Amino acid sequence: MTATVRAADVAVGTELPEQTHRVTRADLVRYAGASGDFNPIHWNDRVATEVGLPGVIAHGMLTMALAARAVTAWIGDPGALVEYHVRFGRPVVVPDDDTGAEVVVRGKVGALDDDGRARIDLTVTSGGEKVLSLARATVRLA
Fold first, then answer.
1. What global pTM score does this model have?
2. Three-class SS state of 14
3. What CATH code would you report for 7-24+57-140?
4. How far does Cα 28 stand from its chain's mean position?
5. Tens-digit pLDDT profile for residues 100-132
6. I want to staple 120 with a disulfide (CB 3.0 to 4.6 A). Which of 21, 80, 83, 137 is the partner?
7. pLDDT of residue 4
8. Taking Cα atoms as reference points, which of 129, 130, 92 lies closest to residue 121?
């Protein structure tokens, strides 16, 4: 697969399509099984609150993956993602109901270089608050 977004079609300020992801407790169970991360803060309210969290929280790496998905969906090729960095700012609190939490990912081209690469600046929120800080991806354009 090759990137489908061409350098000629991208400018600084180009916005990626917004993506909204719903994360439920069932998703946390599935992610725990896939990742091997069975830390009880991701499924047990009592443990989560005992350690000072507001409740059960999503795995940070799951939140990070949802943000990366917005970039790879836009570029059209997961292999075109050449660098990715985030800082975890706030947890995504996942209530014990059928609705879960909403994670919203927005992205914008922040810089272009002469090698056909673009820096994507991401804004990732849940409950109206930023959950990832300094979230940036570098992609190779077609």
1. 0.93
2. coil
3. 3.10.129.10
4. 15
5. 999 999 999 999 999 999 999 999 999 999 999
6. 137
7. 83
8. 130
